[in-house]
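Thread: Modeling a multi-component assembly for a lab meeting

Hi all, long-time lurker, first post. My supervisor asked me to bring a structural picture of a complex we are working on to next week's group meeting, and I have zero experience with this. I have the sequence lines for every component (949 residues in total). Could someone generate the structure of the whole assembly? Inputs are pasted exactly as I received them:
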Amino acid sequence: MVIDADTLRHMSEASVSVELETEDMTLNIGPQHPSTHGVLRLVARVDGERVYDVKPVIGYMHRGYEKLSEVRTYPQITALLNRIDWVSGYANEIPFMVAAEKLMELEVPDRAQYIRLILTEMARISSHMVFMASYPLELGAATPLFFALRERERLLDLLESVTGGRFHPNFNRIGGVKPAYGSGSTTRKWIQDLPAGFFEETTQAMVRIREAVDQLEDLVAGNEIILARTKGIGVLPPEVGAAFGVSGPNLRASGVKFDLRRAENYLPYDKFDFEIPTGANGDCWDRWKVRLDEIRQSCLIIEQAVAGIPSGPLQAKVPKVIKVPAGETYVRAENPKGEMGYYLVSDGGGGPYRLKIRSASFSNISILPWALEGVLVPDIIAIMGSLDFVLGDVDR
Amino acid sequence: MPEVVLDLFSNFWVALLGKVLLVALMIPLIGMVIGFAEMKLSAKMQNRVGPYFAGGRWGWAQLIADGVKFFQKEDLIPADADRPVFKTAPIWVLVGTVALFVVIPFGPGLIFRDLSVGVFYALAISSISTIGVLMAGWSSANKYSLMGGLRAAGQLIAYELPLVLAVIGSVILAGTMSMSGIVEAQIEAGYPYVIFQFVGFGIFMIAALAELTRIPFDMPIAESELVMGYLTEYSGFRFLFFFLAEFANMFTMSAIAVTLFLGGYWLPGLSEDQLVYLGPIILIAKVFVLVFAMIWFRWTFPRFREDQLQTLAWKWLIPLALVNIMVTAALKVLL
Amino acid sequence: MTSSPSETEAGQAEGVDQAEEVEQADHPLQGFADEVAEAVGGTAEITFDTVKIKVSAGDWVKAHQTARDQLDLVFFSFLSAIDWAKEVEVGDPLKDEDFEERIEMLTTVSDLSAGMRVTFSADLPTEKPVIDSLVGVYAGADWHEREAAEMFGIDFSGHPNLAALYLPDAFEGNPLRKSFPLLSREVKPWPGKVDVEGMPEDQSSEQSDEPSTENPEA
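Re: Modeling a multi-component assembly
Sure thing. I ran the full set together rather than chain by chain. Output:
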């Protein structure tokens, strides 16, 4: 830039005038970024610290599950489905199982339903613990990560002892849960149920998790800086949330007392006594608080389920080659991230004709262009983190 | 004993060389010790063990290993970067830190150079690091670094003011700007100045954390947002310079705080002769208490947002510091 | 598939399959289904506890507006489509040959109090499917319509930005159409419907045994 009389005059005028000619900058946040929960790319137009607009670019993890489901048999699809939202692996399989069982008009035994419920609630606690760990980390506090993940390990160990997998259990079968045959048995006469000591360890784990949740609440909720970073940030009015399809704790934080565990009957939640926590304002702080309270409620549900589990078979009688009669239905469930549903269209064959996967995070992050307009750059991280999405869930 | 040592180094150039070598030795050593302390303390707070394998059981050689690792890395400079600026930025940051060592009194007479304007010099020269940070952010040819640099510009310049204003209270009480003079004034008064200057001490520590861009003020780095802010494109030994500079700067800022507020190398009840030997140890012990507090804050708090940070500086710390100065001056005149 | 007759709740074995709609008012959702059908002007059907309302493509936006304003179905769940085709590249063709080749649009909306939900469906021609966009009614339809557009080739008139969502820019074709092949099946063709092999020692083809209730946790 040539410094001459004209430029100097312009510069001095610029310092006096109010409107300064500036160029805004296009900043690519992602796809590789510490805070985008996976390969999400946000093309943000920023002016200094102020964001003009944000365009999310997704599809980096698109694996084509819906097309793949058309060429898989029903038992094979379960292996695909728990990789959608890998943080809460078990919960993804449930609505699909219920849909297939509905079309086959199967009655799932009670014990299997209770086991499904216990493992789903463990998946919920597990997912919310990951949120408790990663959200303060994005705001800069590194220590809650260790407290939360340490407790999550207990649940993952329990899950592994039952299903054999920490993240991808593959434990559901059409008609119930997997009746594991005792190791080394070739006659298949003796069915091994849950491992010995499972219920005691679960109860102990619940005690430890409640303690950890109290610890996290002390550490995070009493912190002035976290309150300053999250209170009043990213307020989501419930009408806007509902129009976009935002569901789960995100919508409940805006004051909508709606939980699919009560509204739909895919698992026997009506036998248990638990509350639905809601928030008052719908800001980032409320979304954090709702998830914290949900962990407590899930602990309560698991304790009640463990105390009252009936005995019985683990799977209804199903033929060896599963064929689901023709029909279509939509089953939705309260996943930790929100509403997860499967629209299953069957033509009577061994695999679905069409499986539409309604994933929670896809709708949750469609709100980002609306929510991130006009905020500061650090608020992008705070708001994105509070929506708690996983890219596998977004991209399927 | 000190006389014998001084005789040996009576030649000016030998003495200068000795002092330079001593400082050159101390900076990496202090950097490594504080870095190791940070690793172990943060591990303790997070229910982990920290470095365990390097060099025997306690992992004490971890930072030595890290230093060697950094040195043998490839020297990467981004293609679009402004090469001279990119290369000299770490040097500026380190210069600001090293130059501060000159005026820290380790004991009575144990100071590299007793300047009569020691406080003024210390605060002025620590601002050179700011230039280094801005150079790093601008020259990296990376939008994240540029944003980090912008944030750093705002933050570091904003927090210079509370830093400077906070120490004026101590200077007024002591009546001199020489660092060893202030310690001697505290010895003479019989109490460390923090007792009356607690406001100044608090403001100084907060501003020092902001000058160091440590959490809760690490917006310029903001690991979870800007990858590493102005440090994103630095690797290898250039990054090591920044790294060491941060830890050494923790030491020097704490040392200034100890000198101006906590009585420096003095503990009540010790004679001058004893202070010659025990002084450095006492100073380092006090410094480590403050460094421990800094490490503790880092792993407990999240980071402020940029505008909240600026609000804190301009609307709270500066007026508070000004009020502190007025009250101190008034009381000094009246009493 | 032919529209299945109204099903009763599981347990009621009296339902003889009939092609026409018979008033079997035993289903608890029947009243709600009729109310919705009347309000939007479509035909109601209950398939396995899902209320499905068929409307014409021209009434698409109006039906959703009515649902949102009058019936309080404010929550937008999803929007997608089904490609009913006679020739399929992947998988088996449909057993029942007697159906109409079309693209069936689906949306599901629900309310936020009692959890009542409705699935709207409309039929579009397979060659050039065009339908009005729902972004004016439900803001969340934006991304769902972009996905349906790139996956099925549906044109949503009135959509502000029908760019590709998942697929890279250079991608050609509509993957979820039945005429679009699956690359791995190009290499190894579809082996047929039974993809499951038995265990090595298991020679008999009996069903799974009666499980013994002897378990450690009983």
